[in-house]
Amino acid sequence: MPELPELDAVVGLLRGRTVGRRVSRFDIVAFSVLKTAEPPHESLVGRTVTSVTRRGKFLLLEVDGRYAVVHLALAGWVKTGDAALAKRPSSSGPLAFRLTFDDGTHVDFTEQGRKKSLALWITDDPLHVERVARLGPEADAITAEEFVAMLARSSSRLKTVLTDQTMLAGIGNAWSDEVLHGARLSPFATANRLSSPDVQRLFDALGTVIHEVRTRLDGVPLDRIKSTKKSLFRVHARTGDPCPVCGTPVAEVSYADRSLQYCPGCQTGGKRLSDRRMDRLLK
User: Fold this and answer.
1) For burial by CB atoms within 10 Å, which of 26, 45, 169, 244 has the most?
2) How far apart are CA 139 and CA 4, in angstroms?
3) Nearest to 101 by CA among 191, 19, 7, 200
4) Residue 251 near residue 261 (C-beta atoms within 8 A)
5) For 198-208, what is the mean pLDDT?
6) pLDDT band at residue 216 under the 50/70/90 scheme
7) At 106, phi and psi to the nearest 5?
8) What is the pLDDT of residues 138-188, one digit of tens each?
9) How far is Cα of residue 265 from the mean position of the Cα atoms in its chain?
10) DSSP three-state, residue 137
11) Under 8 Å between Cβ of 249 and 261
12) What pLDDT sits at residue 92?
């Protein structure tokens, strides 16, 4: 799922492609993505894109005071096309919806796979979208004091806290693994039981990961952001590979629809965390 650093890269690229351009067509190909009936999506036609921003994992395209709010979910992505390459949208592929502009260029929002979760809202105020209104502070803007208070009021595991969008917006499964590795903390550690030095390391690691990934993704074309992101992982999606810090093989905990990765040597004192799914398979 696209997270804060790569979505910021997408925002930067879309600004250059769309701001100041008038929407000439708005084609919804997969109608399941549209979560609002009023205002109608066609109401954006004839309006000019005035800004492209991000809130948490949501993209916000402002079009003369009205917004297209997009959540790319697990397998959604963004593609751009030039006038010479523009074709009429087809429902046979991954395309969910397309915005076409007055110069003939277009932006496609796509979703791969059978599970369709990409979502689009048309609204005059993004806070009218409940999932946006419930977001916590941005992971790249939270203060040290706010971070300490957030951890202190939660008895959940660190992995849960870092990925709970109502507590901290923008960080998901991938970068939370990297933040926890950078902080040398177990994903199963309890948030309100951390020592002050642990909290400080976690806060520092959060800022460091976001800054480093943003820097590496700056100027990367849309079609290379995903592959560049993967190349930056130290532990996430690296199960069995040697940890680049201590050499210990990266371990994994699997769930029904996702998994987390960590380094036993750096994060759990050499102990492997309980993985009920894998334990059952090995019985």
Assistant:
1) 169
2) 8
3) 19
4) yes
5) 98
6) very high
7) -145, 160
8) 999 999 999 999 999 999 999 999 999 999 999 999 999 999 999 999 999
9) 28
10) coil
11) no
12) 62
Other beta carbons within 10 angstroms of residue 243's beta carbon come to 20
Closest CA to 255 of 237, 276, 234: 276
Task: Specify burial of residue 7 (Cβ count, 10 A radius: 0-12, 13-18, 19+).
Answer: buried
Residue 40: count of CB within 10 angstroms of its CB: 12
Residue with tokens 């979910």: 73
Q: Partners of 157 in the beta sheet?
A: 190
Report which of 123, 20, 26 is spatially closest to residue 71, judged by C-alpha positions.
Answer: 123
Q: Report the alpha-carbon distance of residue 234 to residue 236 in Å, rounded.
A: 6
Under a CB-based contact definition with an 8 Å cutoff, are residues 163 and 259 in contact?
no
Q: How far is CA 185 from its chain centroid?
A: 22
SS3 track for 10-33: HHHHHHHHHCCCEEEEEEECCHHH
Supply 276's token pair.
């009920």
Q: How big is the chain, counted in residues?
A: 283
Give the pLDDT confidence of 251-278 residue by residue, as tens digits. 999 987 789 999 999 999 999 998 865 5
Between CA 48 and CA 21 the distance in angstroms is: 5
Rounded-to-integer distance, Cα 210 and Cα 193, Å = 25
Backbone angles phi, psi at 193, to 5 degrees: -110, 5
Residue 279 sits at the vertex; the CA angle it makes with 164 and 283, to the nearest 5 degrees, is 160
Q: Number of C-alpha atoms within 13 angstroms, CB side, residue 261? A: 17
Task: Kindly calculate the radius of gyration of the chain based on its CA atoms and give it in whole angstroms.
Answer: 20
Continuous segment of H or E residues that includes residue 262 = strand 259-262
**Coil vs helix vs strand at 116:** coil
